[in-house]
Each structure stands twice: as structure tokens, then as C-alpha cells.
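Report of the visiting student (M.T.), summer placement. My assignment was to run the structure pipeline on a short list of targets and document each run. The first record concerns TetR family transcriptional regulator.
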Amino acid sequence: MQQVTSAADRAELRISEAELAMPTDRRLILAAERLFAERGIDAVSLRAVMSAAGANVAAVHYHFGSKEALIEALIRQRSDAVATRRAALLDEVEQSGVVSARGLAEAFVLPVWEMATGEGGSWVKFIASVLGSGHPALSTVAEGFADQARRFMTLLGRAFPDLPRHTIRFRLAQAMTLTFQVLGDVHQTQDLLAISGVQLSPEQVMSELVDVVTAILAGPPSD
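After the run finished, the C-alpha cells were exported:
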């Protein structure tokens, strides 16, 4: 039998009526996404996810089997969309005939920006926390990025043939961490800049981030 939550509880947990009308597995993923982003994976129990989703324990185990499987489904359900968008942008870079660090940086950052400013803001924040904490879920994040990483490495190697492969790998890892950290909490970046009197809109933060990622990818190697 499905657990019923009161209107007050749902408001506190920010569960919308539209979400409550979704299939149970989708509700569980959305609830986990939000709670993990706000509190961290280890601080959230399956019971908390169940309560936020308006479901019961049996539903969690029926659809996912375990917390680890739920985490994997949560990571993959939006990483696939990011990968598809990146692939389209990389196609444009290749078709242009000119592979530049700027074009690659835009292909790297823009899909995450679009996710962060769309329906996937909590997901971006969640991935940022996984990258920053070294949680075991990091391996699932890395697997989801593997195909994209290989393509970025090939194109970067073409644009900068003097860069060693280990340098390219390192730069991609730093670009990924920075992109999710900044876009996972744009307001925090704005607040930090405001302390020194710099006021940036979210769009300006994104533009500056593309500039920084461009610099990461294009910087000359050390001697």
C-alpha cells in the first residue's frame, strides 16, 4: 500500500502535484536527486527518499533493489541527456573544420549549464558533491563520461598535438570538476564575487566559466 503524505509534508519536501502524478520509479529518482543534492548521499536514508516520493519501502526495493542501484539510476538518467547534447556540439565542432579549445570548452560546459538552468539543477549539484567528496558513486559518474572523454581526448590531441595524453586526461578531469562545482551552485559563486564588489549574472558566470575551461584546455605544457 502506498504511503500517503500530508499537504504540509509535501510542501516542506517540495514535492509538487505534478511529481506525485508521475510513475513511482520516476518519483523516487527525483526525490533522491533533490535530497542527495541538499544533504549528501550518506546523510539520506532510503526511508527519507521513500517519504519524499510518497512511496513505500517495497516500492524502492521493487524498482531498484538497493540504495546503490537507485544512485546509479539517478546518475545515468540525466548523464545520458548531457552526453547526447555534448555529442551534438562536438559534431558541430568537427563539421566546422576547425577544432579549437574554445569550441571544445563550449561543448563541455553548455550541456551542464542547460541542465543546471533547466530541470536538472539538483542533479548538477549532486554530481558536484560526488566529485568533491570522492564518494564511491564517482565510478558511475566516470563510466557515464567515458565515451565523451575519449572523444574530447581525440579532438584535443588533434588541436594540440604536443600535449601528452596524461596532460589531456588531467585537464579534462579538472575541467569536469570545475564545471560542476561552479554550475552546481551558481549563487555561491555570485556571492563570493560580490564580497569583492563584482556583480555577475548567471549568464556571465557561465561565460566566464567557458573562458576558464578554454584556458585549462589550451594552456601550454610545462617544460
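The chain is about 75% helix and 0% strand. The mean pLDDT is 89. I thank the supervising group for their guidance throughout the placement.
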